[in-house]
UniProtKB/TrEMBL annotation:
Name of the protein in question: AGAP008654-PA-like protein
Ranges where the Alpha-macroglobulin receptor-binding domain occurs: 1158-1246
InterPro entries from the UniProt entry: A-macroglobulin_rcpt-bd, A-macroglobulin_rcpt-bd_sf, A2M/Complement_sys, Alpha-macroglobulin_TED, Ig-like_fold, Macroglobln_a2, MG2, Terpenoid_cyclase/PrenylTrfase
Any one cellular-component term (Gene Ontology): extracellular space
Length: 1252
């Protein structure tokens, strides 16, 4: 079993961010397991974000609040002082729109807002706030959204073998039931479904009983086959009428249906080791909400198959009872010849099967059982191999217990681990480590739990005072900060808790997961973290509303512990919702349940209009009038006001510019009627629509909304991205913005962003680069210890114990290597590539190990340097005339390429002694250049590319210096043909036929980072991070730890790069400088909003930084001016006789759509004053095949040439004019081009030219 060593570091010895090592040993003498984690004694500050809405529309303000917490939900101690918080707004298409730094005091609230100006802001957004390295993210969406006036819901009430019972509710958003006719159709079943039409009851409800034979085709057999689960689509159409007009409302919902009222699914947990148990997870999900899973059993049949799948080794059948959550774990023993197990599971008529295959590498699975299954925290654990035992690391939210490590003895593959949940203070995540029985392999996995619920111990009250209302937040704790948000209307969710939590600080309370990883003397296998089952209902904390909340009426907070807010409810508001929060040092963040308020009016009205409309486009405005009393209103007037003359009334007896339109009628008791107004907007921008209803006895109601009138313009967006990597140098770029002159004035939006890293997804903390220091051969130990010292140096990590251990290992390795050197300077490693070329390979391995270790040697006699020089001298003597090494022993071309590349890397690493080997390096380069074209294995291509690129630091002064880049680029192009890419484009790698895919990808990464192509390097880093790049190589190899070296090289240019810089941004319009700004490493913002008139940008940066300069600009262009239909070019030729003038005319068609064509295009040429068409020119044009007709008129002063078609390639012709008389005043000529077959879309383009 596994047990905890006594060297456990307690909390008093830890400091904030300390790296804690825990040794876990096996009493049977197995190797040590070291678990690392970063455990802060004091919680690092984090921020919480509240948004005013989950969905916004263009023209809205994005309002938000930010609280500074202690890492949990309580304010920081005031002695901490103010902290800098970096706030950023990021758009999916515009990237970072804004970024700024604010100073936030403990217990204070930061209020901010951002204006969404136009359609360029549509899409998905993220608001992020970062403090002390902890980032909280809040997503929101911007889209065209007009709240529907209806709410239709479809719920499954009951489902059995005979019928499906549906309850359908149809209501208006203001709470009244809809009246009319409902039509229900179903698609996705086996048989055609006849629509069902029913009247809606007075309560707005309809109950439907749908026979199962209208969904499933059971056939006419006496014993029909059981049907499969179906996902049907229920479409509800409600039609309401009002006089001679009607409105139709639609709602669609998918429903999973089966006569047995359940869905049976099988889920893979882990593979299996032959002779061990094969496991599978069964999940039985009810399809209706009223079903309780008690004493449900499934029948299981299993078949064990051999490797060739031509013989069943064993069959078995048994039953298993599912737990209350509908899950059950199936487990069957296997034999040593079993390669796969087929599970066939049945529940009543439901059937499902799944094949579990054997797994050579160990796998681990952990899941958290729901609380209703077991009272305490229970983990279900399954593994593919038999275990010695496991270590459970339980992390919590409260901070009272930093973490708990529990050692559990287990010699089985599946077990349940129970722990008292009350002692954990709220489960955050679980890390599980297990050691495989009778082996030296360690396997680990993890699972995360949902965040703790926010408390709700306070309450809200709303009381009427003198001409206003007073909102009070009642709480028993000492108030620190109180904030409220008031919305018009009733929020469109039925679940108050979900609304409350989404609006009030839900989401990423713990945005950055705690790192906890294992390092082991032998192989560590990581099973990916368990993801939530997609069939599970989403937790209340993570569910996000898909619709916009109603209009925000009040957004306010009091920092003076005053729980009272004065609020005057607008006259047109009849319903509102009040939400609030409190933030104090005693209770932390507390969110009370929202309250609702409704005005007790006799009548109410509600305006419904589309989100936006074009100018002069007819728009239908519906005004819904509600009678809230139980008696008839005999006379009612409803009017839509137009006092600002912003729109025209249509269908108003010719009075289109009236200041109002009035409609009169009557209302029955509790009735809802719709009044229609047809209008046409006259201006661009927002138009306030205000409606009033009143009766003869002075009963009054009012409502208003906004109609947005948008121009007929097209949005254009362009991006300029310039990546760079400088170290103590200067880079300057100048960019011109291709903004045409004819754009909608003031619509230009130009931002410049300076990013510190090119790709944030490829992050490399130092913890991923530290290799475990364990005993091995001296060559591997030298490389391993040297890389560890390099990581400590680059990351500026203060770890004296590890530093001393690594230096001791370097010294020990050098002593052992010096004892293996032969008199001639060569090395021959026992058991490594035996044969005639053993000395060649051994010397290369030793030379590379010595180059890594020598900078860390503390030998004053520098004996290791002499050993390196002797080894290189021996290799130099083994170089053939064509440049390759060890020619007599290595005959295969690929082996020669590999030996030569590794030798070139060794010779290029000699630093100040490289001048001695210029001829050797030059000849090796020549050989690799001559052979790179015959290589096919990505490993050899990548190795050659990196060796040539790495040797570029040595200038030999010979011809090979000139074609280094050519060779590297050829290898890189060949590599890019063979690359493998994940569907998400986040992972890139190469598959090597020689089973060296990790090495091939690593050498490619080394080459890319040395060329500072960091943007292209990031996907390679992501792939390597998922591999066992720190594992102990099974044999000595010159590729030792190449993956780790590649990651370190990337981190040196990104994570460990100490950035200090000054950037100057200068913006100019078409003639002069209009903007100047300076950015530095600690500037408050790195996103600049440039003036709209900017047309060119100059960017100069000086210092050390790897990053990207990005300019994103957009503008609106009127569609009428966006593109001419024809492109004209006219050239006037020099003439020998002043009485003759020659013009060359070219006309080219510019289609707006892919299939658009022209027919019968006429070019009408009007000559300047005094000129007429020359007869010879007219006759020449008539002889051309592509011309349909040539005519003259107005006494030959106008020449019309008609083509059958003008294509995108264009038509060109010549025209000659003859000066008939001389005039003192010459009027210019003109050219008209138009499509005579389409007069509705006739395009006339004028081009003037004058005669000198």
């Amino acid at each position: 079993m596994l047990q905890l060593n006594a060297s456990f570091i307690d909390g008093e010895e830890c400091y904030s961010g300390a790296r804690v090592r825990r040794q876990i040993r096996s009493p049977q003498g197995g190797a040590e397991v070291v678990l690392f984690t970063e455990i802060p004694v004091e919680h690092r500050p984090r921020v919480l974000i509240q948004m005013s809405h989950p969905v916004y529309t263009p023209g809205d303000y994005v309002k938000y609040r930010i609280l500074l917490t202690d890492g949990l939900t309580k304010p920081l101690d005031k002695s901490t002082g103010s902290l800098p918080v970096t706030i950023a707004l990021r758009h999916t298409t515009q990237h970072t729109v804004g970024s700024w730094v604010v100073q936030l005091d403990p217990g204070a609230v930061y209020n901010g807002q951002y204006l969404l100006t136009d359609d360029r802001d549509l899409g998905d957004w993220n608001l992020t706030a970062t403090v002390d390295g902890q980032t909280t993210t809040k997503p929101f969406e911007v889209r065209h959204y007009s709240a529907p006036v209806h709410q239709i819901s479809v719920e499954v009430d009951r489902m059995d073998m005979d019928k499906l019972k549906l309850n359908i509710n149809a209501n208006y958003i203001f709470g009244k039931p809809m009246q009319g006719t409902m039509t229900v159709t179903i698609s996705g079943g086996d048989v055609p479904f006849s629509p069902i039409q029913k009247p809606i009851s007075e309560q707005g409800k309809v109950m439907l009983l749908i026979p199962m034979e209208q969904i499933f085709d059971l056939g006419e057999d006496e014993f029909p086959a059981p049907p499969d689960v179906r996902v049907i689509t229920v479409t509800v159409t409600v039609e309401t009428s009002n006089g001679i007009s009607s409105r139709t409302y639609h709602h669609t919902k998918p429903i999973t249906v089966h006569p047995d009222n359940h869905q049976l699914t099988l889920h893979r947990m882990v593979g299996f080791d032959p002779e061990q148990n094969a496991t599978l997870l069964v999940k039985l999900t009810p399809l209706s909400k009223n079903t309780i899973l008690v004493d449900r059993q499934v029948t299981v049949s299993t078949q064990l198959w051999d490797e060739d799948e031509n013989m069943i080794l064993r069959e078995d059948t048994f039953t298993r009872t599912v737990e209350k959550d509908g899950t059950a774990v199936l487990s069957v023993p296997t034999t040593d010849a079993t390669t796969s197990v087929i599970f066939a599971v049945e529940y009543k008529a439901l059937k499902s099967s799944f094949t579990v295959e054997s797994s050579y590498n160990p796998e681990l699975y952990v899941r958290i059982l729901p609380a209703e299954v077991r009272a305490s925290l229970t983990l279900g654990i399954a593994s593919s191999h038999r275990l010695d035992g496991y270590v459970v690391v339980v992390r919590n939210h409260t901070g009272e217990v930093l973490d708990r490590i529990v050692i559990h003895e287990s010699d089985s593959q599946e077990s349940y681990f129970e722990y008292d949940l009350r002692r954990t203070g709220g489960l955050k995540n679980v890390h599980l480590f297990a050691k495989v029985n009778d082996g030296d392999r360690l396997v680990q996995t993890s699972i995360s739990h949902e965040e703790p619920r926010l408390p709700s111990k306070s309450s809200i009250s709303l009381e009427e005072t003198n001409k206003s209302h007073e909102i009070t937040v009642n709480t028993l704790s000492n108030l620190g900060v109180v904030g409220i948000a008031v919305y018009e209307g009733l929020l469109d969710w039925g679940n108050i808790d979900q609304i409350n939590r989404y609006m009030m600080f839900n989401g990423s309370l713990y945005a950055t997961p705690d790192e906890f990883f294992a390092e082991y003397a032998n192989q560590v296998f990581i099973t990916p973290s368990v993801k939530p089952d997609p069939s599970e209902p989403r937790s209340q904390l993570s569910e996000q509303p898909s619709t916009k909340f109603n209009q925000l009426l009040l957004w306010q907070h009091n920092a003076s512990a005053d729980p009272k807010f004065e609020f005057k409810i607008p006259a047109h508001v009849s319903q509102l919702t009040v939400t609030a929060f409190t933030f104090s040092s005693t209770t932390g963040l507390d969110v009370p349940v929202p309250i609702y308020w409704e005005r007790n009016d006799v009548i109410k009205i509600h305006i419904h209009a589309p989100y936006s409309a074009r100018k002069l486009e007819p728009v239908m405005v519906d005004v819904y009038v509600v009678n809230n009393r139980d008696r008839r209103i005999n006379f009612l007037l409803v009017e839509l006001q137009n006092t600002a003359n912003e729109f025209q009334f249509l269908n108003n007896s010719g009075r289109i510019d009236a200041v109002k339109k009035t409609v009169f009628g009557s209302l029955e008791a509790m009735e809802v009627q719709r009044v229609e107004f047809l209008i046409k907007p006259k201006k661009l921008g927002p138009i306030v629509l205000k409606a009033i209803a009143y009766t003869l006895d002075d009963v009054f109601a009012m409502d208003e909304t906004v109609l947005r009138t948008v121009p007929e313009s097209e949005l254009k967006t362009e991006t300029i991205m310039r990546p760079f990597s400088i170290q103590g140098s200067v880079m300057k770029v100048s960019e011109k913005l291709s903004i045409p002159p004819m754009v909608d004035q003031g619509t230009e939006k130009i931002t410049l962003e300076l990013r510190h890293e090119q790709n944030q997804m490829a992050t490399l903390p130092a913890s991923l680069l530290l290799d475990p220091l364990v005993q091995a051969d001296p060559f591997t130990m030298a490389v391993k210890a040297s890389l560890t010292l390099d990581v400590l140096r680059m990351g500026e990590i203060h770890w004296p114990e590890l530093d001393a251990e690594a230096n001791a290992m370097v010294a020990d390795s050098l002593d052992k290597m010096k004892g293996l050197v032969k008199p001639d300077g060569s090395f021959e490693i026992e058991g490594y590539r035996p044969g005639s070329f053993a000395a060649c390979w051994g010397t290369i391995v030793a030379a590379k190990a010595l180059t890594f270790a020598q900078p860390h040697s503390r030998d004053v006699k520098d004996s290791s340097g002499k050993a390196l020089m002797d080894a290189l001298a021996w290799l130099k003597g083994r170089q053939a005339n064509d440049g390759h090494f060890c020619g007599g022993e290595v005959l295969d071309t690929e082996q020669r390429v590999e030996v030569t590349s590794q030798a070139l890397l060794a010779f290029s690493s000699t630093g100040k002694h490289s001048w001695q080997y210029q001829t050797v390096i030059n000849n090796a380069r020549g050989y690799l250049r001559s052979t790179v074209t015959v290589l096919n294995d990505p490993y050899h291509l990548a190795l050659v590319a990196y060796a040539m690129q790495y040797s570029a630091r040595i200038k030999t002064g010979m011809e090979t210096d000139a074609y280094l880049s050519e060779t590297v680029n050829y290898a890189l192009e060949a590599l890019w043909v063979h690359k493998k890419t994940s569907p998400s484009q986040n992972f890139v790698w190469w598959d090597s036929p020689s089973n060296r895919s990790l090495e091939a990808t690593s050498y490619t990464l080394l080459m890319l980072t040395s060329k500072k192509l960091l943007l292209e390097s990031a996907p390679l880093v992501n792939w390597i991070k998922r591999q066992s790049y720190r594992r102990m190589p099974p044999v000595v190899t010159p590729d030792s730890h190449v993956a780790l070296r590649a990651l370190m090289s990337y981190a040196e240019h990104t994570t460990f790069l100490h950035q200090e810089y000054t950037a100057v941004v200068v913006a100019k319009d078409r003639s002069r400088e209009i903007y100047n700004a300076t950015l530095q490493r600690y500037s408050a913002t790195h996103v600049l909003t440039l003036p709209p008139t900017t047309r060119s940008v100059s960017f100069t940066i000086n210092g050390t930084i790897t990053g990207t300069m990005q300019i994103i600009y957009s503008y609106m262009e009127n569609v009428a001016q966006h593109r001419s239909r024809f492109n004209l070019q006219i050239v006037r030729y020099d003439e020998s006789d002043m009485d003759y003038v020659y013009w060359g005319i070219c006309v080219r068609f510019q289609p707006r759509r892919s299939l658009e064509r022209t027919r019968m295009v006429t070019c009408e040429f009007s000559f300047p004053s005094g000129y007429i068409a020359l007869d010879d020119s007219v006759e020449e044009l008539q002889g051309l095949d592509e011309i349909v007709s040539v005519t003259t008129r107005n006494k030959e002063t106008v020449l019309a040439v008609t083509f059958e078609e003008i294509t995108v390639q264009g038509r060109c012709f010549n025209v000659t004019g003859f000066r008939r008389k001389r005039l003192d005043k010459v009027l210019p000529g003109e050219l008209k081009v138009f499509d005579v077959t389409d007069p509705c879309k006739c395009w006339i383009l004028l081009l003037c030219f004058a005669q000198n």
